[in-house]
Amino acid sequence: MSATPGRIAFATVVAFLGIAPFLPMAGMKQYMLHVVIQIFIWTFIGQAWSLMGRFGLVSLGHGAFLGIGAYATTLLWNFYGLTPWIGSLVAVALAVVMAFLVAYPCSRFGIIGHYFALTTLAVGEVVRLLIIAERDWTGGSLGVTLKAAGDASFIALQYADKQVWYYVGLVLWLAGLWVWARLDRSMARAAMEAIGEDETAAASVGIRVTRFKLWLTVLSAALTALGGVAYAQYITYVNPETLSGIGVSLRIVFAVVLGGMYSLLGPTVGTALTIALSEWLRIVFGVKFIGMAETIYGLLLVIFIIFLPAGIYGSLADLVRRRRRPAAAPATA
Amino acid sequence: MIDPIFLLEAAVNGIMLGGVLALLALGLNLIFGVLDVVWIAYVDLVMVSMYAVYFTVMVYGWPLWLGGLAGVALGVVLGLLVHVLIITPILDSPPVNQLLATGGLLFFIQSFATFLWTTDHRSVRIALPPLEIAGIFVSYARLISFVLSIAVMIGLYLFLTRTYIGTAMRAVSQDRGAMALMGANPQRVYLVTSAVGGAMAGVAAVLLSIQYSVHPYFGAAFGPITFMICVLGGLGNMVGAFVASFIMSEIIAIGGVVWSTEMGYVIAFALFIVMMFVRPGGIFARRQ
Amino acid sequence: MLELRNVTAGYGAFTALWDVTLAVERGEAVAVVGPNGAGKTTLLRVISGVIAPRGGDFVFEDAPLGGRPAHEIVAHGIAHVPEGRRLFPALTVTENLKMGAFLRSARKDFRDSLERVYALFPVLAERHRQRAGSLSGGEQQMLAVGRALMSRPRLILFDEPSMGLAPVMVLRLFDLIRRVREEGYTILIVEQNVRQVLKLVDRAYLLEVGRVKMHGRAAELSEQDFVRKAYVGL
Fold it and tell me: Cα angle vertex B64, ends B58, B65, to 5°?
């Protein structure tokens, strides 16, 4: 049995699954639970982003979909008492419409590379500013708190117990892995990677570039909106800075690129590391040095990107591959 | 209905704002054209230079012109540092890594500024009376910065068309490799470009600091609109960026008076997205 | 003037040039000919500094230039007319020529060089304010040659100048190079159009699969049965 990175990743997931359901019962501290839940939810969002990112669609505006998801369910519940179970469907539908409106012309008119990144960045800003502008509804930049529905309400999808959210997060994370793996294994894999590298080459093979890009963007947006719903329901408070705009959009991308967007566990590793890092920095500096934690976070990101261009997980996987290679094929040098 | 005089005033203010936005857009565009890299943290460098102007003038009591020069000089130094420390090692990396490296710089600058100077808004107060022309009030500070920004842009134009290195910068943006065959050291052209881009950021910082107060999130407020202008004008297209600056600033200024400042931005961004679909290569793209 | 001794070069694990020895004397016109993939482009890349030779010496006017970057090699007096011309399409004719005189040593003679180029190619003077991209193919070729002259070089390299040109244009092009030659410049030309180029140069090297297969006076080479059959097409 050879230890390819793919198999190692698979074994890790299986091993983790074996112990995951029991972790909260082992008397995990509330704070630890909170960190893990965040990692699950943001990894799910990162996985959604990487569906596009790995095929050359670098979106800097995923905050838009996140914000739509979080705000749609929150506002529908607060104003109309609509259960998030239905509200999330509305949120996903809105995100899909938005993604379609952006992605269709983009793929039609060949908006790629820097142009695509900056266009999506504009979309993210539009959503953030709309949220701020409609302050009568949304509370503007102060944000809005989810109306409490008493304790443990299934209809309101509100649970004070973090253990419930732990399992919700776990399911989301697994769902993200499953989608990622499905896409990876699908017949179109090779063809779509060609899209990422060379538009015309793939087009000439007869691949419907437009349809694939559209489909990917819509899927990615829908999942991201779902992640936004989950996050808003868990935190029970939404505000435009943490859920839309350039800041959060960049954080999602960072986590994925840091982990490595071309590997199954890349988004997980990247998100876990960035969240652990920022939590740790927050504890170290506390309220004494406001901004210091984020300063070091930013600095480390720059350093990581310069020195580990393939991402942490990606670089490790490369290392495993390289260490194995001399044994397998010593002749090539 | 809004009094037409307010609309006119907004339109005039829009033109004034457009001048400074054009400086930012041209600086960013110059760097993009030559180096093929988008500095996501460009306006955050402006923010740092604004602090330099604030501290030299308001805290150390330097005259405004001297504090302004310090702001420009700091802009040049920052431009060079960004190029040497961050861009040079990743010049051949995929675009997403380049975007993220300068995006990480954005986090770094923003948070470090918060750490050093807190989130307080600070402004360089210069006592200048507003001008009244035909019933319209125009801020003196805005008028001065508009005139100066136009002057600096004329200077940039002359630099890019009259000098060897300026012409070489335009040449590199058209053919990356061929300038080396003319005897130009590409690294030097890149370095000069980053310095000029930094200088533009410094000048914009000085002109912005006499109109707006500075805070760590200043870059977040002006950054996205600057990128939009560059894309709208066509990345690397200087004339396009110049025109797009005024279109965007007019929409923001008039939208701000009619609805709200945020709605002004929303409309500007919405127009940007629509324009991307109508003319993906920018408003001045030539049909192929 | 220019001397390559036992130069070996390649990319990664692939070696494109083996032990190539070649010399160009002052005032000479020399051609390097050979089929596609013979190593002509690699040879020129070594001389222009795009890639470093893996072994051997590359000396120009007593200065060892092997592995120096492209812009330094230009500063030593070697100018280029690159393959595909590589003009700056949005710059005017004059600006393109100005870029040819980018070297510090060439700038002070800019006016003088400009007049000489305009005298050699009067059509460029007529079009001096036009964008290079709007010129006809022939005019662009002249501009590419003129731009190389602007650096006041002592040796001019021509990289596949006839590539992609219509037959009529090829004749005009060689006429153009002949005029440059008559100005007294030393020329090294890499070319696939063996028949035409041999009429133009003094000596030639025939490259095949990365090695110098034969070299000699152009007239003698074109008489060789082997060359006639394989390349001249007679």
Answer: 150
Q: Is the pLDDT of residue B79 over 80?
A: yes
Q: State the total domains in chain A.
A: 1
How is the beta sheet containing C14-24 ordered, strand by strand? C14-24, C2-11, C55-60, C63-64
Going from the C-alpha of C53 to that of each of A290, A300, C1, C18, C34, the distances in angstroms are: 55, 39, 19, 10, 20
In this model, does residue C53 exceed pLDDT 70? yes
Q: Which DSSP string do the residues of B129-182 spell out, in sequence order?
A: PPEEETTEEE-HHHHHHHHHHHHHHHHHHHHHHHSHHHHHHHHHHH-TTGGGGG
Residue range(s) defining the domain that contains residue B135: 18-217
pLDDT tens sequence across B123-133 = 887 767 777 77
Could you tell me the CA-to-CA distances from A274 to A168, A268, A300 in Å, in that order?
A: 21, 10, 10
Question: What is the spatial distance between Cα A257 and Cα A50, in angstroms, rounded to a whole number?
Answer: 9
Classify residue A244: in a domain, yes or no.
Answer: yes
Dump pLDDT digits (tens) for A218-257.
999 999 999 999 999 998 898 888 887 788 888 898 888 8
Place B77 in a pLDDT band, splitting at 50, 70 and 90. Answer: very high
Question: Rounded to an integer, what distance in angstroms lies between the CA atom of residue A128 and that of residue B236?
Answer: 27
In a domain, B61, yes or no: yes
Structure confidence at residue A196 (pLDDT): 62
Instruction: Verify whether the Cβ–Cβ distance B170 to C91 is below 8 Å.
Output: yes
**pLDDT of B193 strictly over 50:** yes
pLDDT at A53: 86
Q: B181, B189, B237: best mutation site toward chain C, by most C Cβ within 10 Å?
A: B181
Q: What is the mean pLDDT of residues A148-156?
A: 71
How many CA within 13 A on the CB side of residue A304?
26
Q: Look at A187-196, B214-223, C49-58 and tell me which has the smallest mean pLDDT.
A: A187-196
Mean pLDDT computed over C184-201: 89
The domain tally of chain B equals 1
Least confident of A125-129, B20-24, C22-26, C175-179: A125-129
Residue span of the structural domain in which A186 resides: 5-324
Q: Using a CB-CB distance cutoff of 8 angstroms, which residues of chain B are in contact with residue C74?
A: 180-183
Instruction: Find chain B residues with C-beta within 8 A of C89's C-beta.
Output: 174
Please check whether residue B223 lies inside any domain of the structure.
no
B288 — pLDDT class (breaks 50, 70, 90)? very low
How confident is the model over A269-301, as pLDDT tens digits?
889 988 888 888 888 877 777 778 788 888 888
DSSP B205-271: HHHHHTTS-B-TTHHHHHHHHHHHHHHHH-TT-HHHHHHHHHHHHHHHHHHHHHS-HHHHHHHHHHH
User: Does residue B254 form part of some domain?
Assistant: no
- Whether B77 is in a domain gets the answer yes
CATH number at residue A271: 1.10.3470
Q: Across the strands, what pairs with C9?
A: C17
Q: Looking at the domain assignment, is residue A330 inside a domain?
A: no
Residue A206 domain flag: yes
Give the span between the Cα atoms of B206 and B210, in whole angstroms.
Answer: 7
Length of chain C: 234
Task: Flag whether pLDDT at C116 surpasses 70.
Answer: yes
Contact residues of C toward B, CB < 8 A: 48, 69-71, 74-75, 80, 82, 86-91, 95, 98-100, 102-103, 106-107, 147, 151
Structure tokens at C16: 């494109």
